[in-house]
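We now fix the convention by which a protein and its fold are recorded. The integers have meaning only within a learned vocabulary of local backbone shapes. A record is reproduced here so that you can trace the correspondence yourselves:
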Amino acid sequence: MIAGTIQSQVKVDFSVSNARFENNLYTLDVIATVPAEQTWKVGPTCIRVGFQTLPDSFALSVHPDNPATNANINLSGNSDYSAMTTTSIMEGKAVSLNIFNFQGRPSYELTEGSYTLGAIRWNVEHWGSNCIDPTILQNSAIFNELVGQVYNTGWSLTDTTCIPISVKKLSEVVPVEYNLYQNYPNPFNPSTTIKFDIARTTDVQVVIYDALGRQVESLVNERLATGTYEVKWNAGNYSSGIYFYSIITKEYTRTNKMILMK
């Protein structure tokens, strides 16, 4: 009975999704999901997202935005809300998406469903085979109108797995066919860029092999929409020599050669 009562009081669940690059910045959307038979009247709220990048702990740094990008127009820059912002907090180890409801103004009501609140963005400091592990922090300040909500009773969170940050979409133009371009520069030391075209939305792998055919790294392993992409490989931990890189999809596979010269 107690668990059921607690669950029924949760007004909103927070998560992050829709990883992408915008203007060379790594970007995630903060999503609010209001469960059935609940509403969230969005008061002054700070959704705090901690993060770590693996294996390179310094791969990303927070890019503060004022105003925040992709902000929900009902919650930002109108007669009831000032412009939504993002700020770097906890000495750069987290980012806060800040919603400001003007004093004395009504709070916009979100009903059952999922809503994009706004985007949080990072600068890419170190390219390579990294991923970001974001976590909605329990010390986030969530308000229903002017009433503070307690984590796990008034609001909840949904964790995500480590999200790759190495693949960058260059163009929305739909390619006529699949293609894997020659890496550049080549020879290289220690980083190189691999560009490829995806003609139809599909699961994509980009894999690095050594001269003996042993897989040494997986750069991409995710579902990608149509478009042109690039991914960088940092071979700083590998010795000079010939390497191969392959793109693998259901409809297209190709392998090219590259040379690491230190």
User: Anything to note?
Assistant: The mean pLDDT is 90. The longest strand covers residues 113-124. Helices lie at 2-9.
